[in-house]
Amino acid sequence: MLDQQQKRSFAGQGYLVVPRVVPRSLIDAARREVEGHVARAPPPAGHRGPHSYFLAGAWHDSLSALLCESPALLAAESLIAPGKFEAPEQVQISLNVPPFDHRPGGPHIDGLAPPELDGRPGTFTLLAGILLTDQAAEQMGNLWVWPGSHRSAAAYFREHGPEALLSSAPYPLVELSEPRQVVGRAGDLLLAHYLLGHNIGGNMSAVTREVVYFRLRREGHRGRWREFVQDALLEFEPVRTAANCFP
After folding, report:
1. Could you say which DSSP state residue 33 is in?
2. Rounded to an integer, what distance in angstroms lies between the CA atom of residue 247 and that of residue 54?
3. Domain count, the chain
4. CATH number, domain with residue 195
5. Could you please report the per-residue DSSP string of 143-202?
6. Which member of 47, 87, 93, 246 lies 3.0 to 4.6 Å from 53 by CB, making a disulfide possible if both were Cys?
7. How far is C-alpha 107 from the geometric centre of its chain's CA atoms?
8. 201-211 residue pLDDT tens
C-alpha cells in the first residue's frame, strides 16, 4: 500500500500523511455521527479550542468504518507487516473549536497522564488519524508535530531506561527540531509513531476542525513496550528495511 519512499520518510520524520484514503461517503457518515455526539453532549457554552469524545467498547459503525472499510488499516499495517494490529480499545473524536489563537509550548507523548490501571505507561505502536474536515493551511486546528523526535526520544530511553517514560512526561528533555503543522484534506490519513512529539494547535479558521483518532497496538506490544520505546523501529520491520536501502 505504501511505497518505499513513504516508508523511508516515516523512518526519518516519524509521521506520514497519505492523501485521499477514505472515500467521501464514509467521511459524510462519520461527520453525521460526530454531529450527533455534539448535539447530545455539546462543549460548554463559549468553549474555544480542543474538545474530545473518547468512545470505548463497541464503536458506532460509521466511525469504525473509517478504518476498517477503507484502505486506511491496510496502509497502517503495511508499516508493520507481517504483523497485525489488535482491535483498538477506543476511538477519539477530536474537535478544535474556533477562534482559538494558540501555539503549543512543546510536545507530549500520549498515555502517560494517567497511565493504565496497572501502572504501565499507555504505550501503543501507531496513531492513525482520519481528517473529517480540510486543514489545507496552517492555523486550521492542525496537529503540530516535531519531526524526528521519535528517534531522539528512543535514544533518551536507551540512555535512561524505559522506566523513565512516565517521569519524563510530557516529553523527555531532548533536542527538538522546528515543529510543523500537519496539513491535509478530508479523507486524508495521518500515521504517526507513538514516540513522535505532538500537540494541539490553534484554529483561526471559520470551521471546527474534526479528526477521528485510533491508537493502534501491534499484537504483543504490551509484552515488549520497554524494548519498543528504546528502538523506534522495533515494530516496523518494513520501515527499517526501507530506511536501510539506498533510494
Report:
1. H
2. 41
3. 1
4. 2.60.120.620
5. EEE-TTHHHHHHHHHHHH-TTHHHHTTT--S---PPPEE--B-TT-EEEEETT--EEE--
6. 93
7. 13
8. 999 999 999 99
CA triple 221-226-231, angle to 5 deg: 90
Residue-wise pLDDT tens digits, 168-200: 999 999 999 999 999 999 999 999 999 999 999
Give the sheet arrangement for strand 143-145, strand by strand: 180-181, 143-145, 198-200
Q: Name the least confident of 49-53, 58-62, 136-140.
A: 58-62
Decide if 207 contacts 140 (C-beta within 8 A): yes
Please tell me the pTM assigned to this model: 0.96
Helices (H) and strands (E) in the chain, counts: 8, 9
Structural domain that includes position 54: 4-243
What grid cell was written down for 24?
467521501
